[in-house]
Design goal:
The two termini are 27 Å apart. Strand 2 and strand 3 form a beta hairpin. The chain has 136 residues and is α+β, with helices and mostly antiparallel strands. The chain has one domain: Deoxyribonuclease I, Chain A (4-Layer Sandwich), CATH 3.60.10. It contains two helices and eight strands, in the order βββαβββαββ.
Length: 136
């Protein structure tokens, strides 16, 4: 039996939603949908980071949890292969902050092909290492 529920979050943000899914092996999957507009800011990423801190707190006693995030970060100036913000980007500080957050929570983006024109804007980010295998 799989049980899921929306994860209540005290901050009011219509741009982030989390769901907790209990898998058959009692492992928990936390899944999120996130949207950041093209003119994104550090404040929006701070809300994203706060939501991840909340999820991390829920996972403290369950080390086998999985986090999956489907999002549109509109982060066109990030080289996802090298995990570096493109120098000279008008939003380099925001891009650096996003990369720092992903690293802090051991989250890996899996999309390597452009999702809009020549840019990777839509991401699938996960903590589940089997999804990030080069043999997928």
């Amino acid at each position: 039996m799989t049980i899921s529920q929306e994860v209540p979050w005290t901050r009011n943000s219509g741009e982030i939603i989390w769901v907790e899914i209990l898998l058959k092996n009692k492992q928990k999957l936390y899944s999120s949908s996130v949207y950041h507009p093209p003119s994104r800011s550090n404040a929006q990423l701070e809300l994203f980071e706060e939501s991840l801190c909340d999820i991390a707190g829920r996972c403290k006693n369950n080390p086998n949890h999985i986090i999956n995030i489907g999002d549109d970060f509109n982060a066109r100036d990030i080289n996802w292969d090298s995990m570096c913000a493109v120098s000279g980007s008008s939003q380099k500080d925001v891009n650096d902050m996003l990369l720092r957050i992903l690293g802090h929570f051991n989250l890996t983006p899996t999309v390597r092909e452009p999702t809009r024109h020549s840019s990777i804007l839509d991401l699938f980010i996960t903590s589940y290492q089997a999804y990030t295998s080069p043999h997928m």
